[in-house]
Design goal:
Length: 217
């Protein structure tokens, strides 16, 4: 968690506030789709090595790479995917969703990442996750224009939390990247209520494994 926060901080400091108008993206026509990156998260070192923060800094892979999984993520992978959707919708900058990601498409690097949209096999759960996350961004000015501050990085439980503030609006976004439930015991949640979570069993004290939640006034 602390390493992730540090890398985000370095990226923000490297480019300045003017860069927020540029696209924040996690996949594109020049990469494997994010679902495939998640599906192969334990198989290729360049998705585990923090030194390779940029996709192009690591080895390029495709569907013919030995051992590559060109199928959907596992159950935990889908949970990570939903967390990522909420992160993109609540982090600073202008989020860009590569076509098809919001309907559940996966695919290796060229040409699998450029297939036509799977309208005939839309993943409704993933679609609803993106729809809900970006509805929050549309509703809350703080998510589009607000200040950003890291509130917690708990490495033992892999908990990461930040706030977005604008005028009198304050929102707190929490993430549990761990494989077990996490207790939210920070004072930063006082006076706030749960607005949305990627796991319906979340509350103001408990964040299930591999899930994210947003709290507001």
């Amino acid at each position: 968690a602390s390493q992730f926060a540090e890398r985000l901080n370095n990226e923000r400091n490297s480019h300045g506030d003017n860069a927020y108008i540029l696209q924040n993206l996690v996949d594109s026509h020049d990469t494997q789709r994010i679902a495939s990156a998640i599906a192969n998260r334990s198989s290729f070192d360049h998705y585990k090595n923090s030194d390779w923060f940029d996709y192009d800094d690591g080895e390029r892979v495709n569907a013919r790479t030995p051992g590559y999984n060109n199928g959907p993520p596992d159950e935990d992978g889908y949970r990570i995917w939903k967390m990522l959707a909420l992160f993109q919708a609540t982090y600073v900058g202008a989020p860009m969703i590569y076509y098809g990601t919001e309907v559940g498409m996966w695919g290796a690097d060229d040409p699998e990442d450029r297939m036509p949209t799977w309208w005939h096999r839309m993943d409704k759960a993933i679609y609803k996750s993106y729809q809900a996350a970006f509805q929050l961004r549309h509703t809350h000015t703080a998510l589009r224009r607000g200040d950003f501050k890291v509130l917690e990085t708990r490495d033992d439980a892999q908990v990461f939390a930040f706030e977005r503030t604008y005028s009198d609006e304050r929102l707190v976004v929490t993430f549990n990247r761990g494989n077990g439930d996490a207790t939210l015991d920070g004072d930063y949640l006082k006076g706030l209520k749960l607005i949305h979570s990627t796991d319906p069993s979340a509350n103001t004290r408990r964040l299930p494994k591999l899930s994210a939640a947003i709290f507001g006034q």
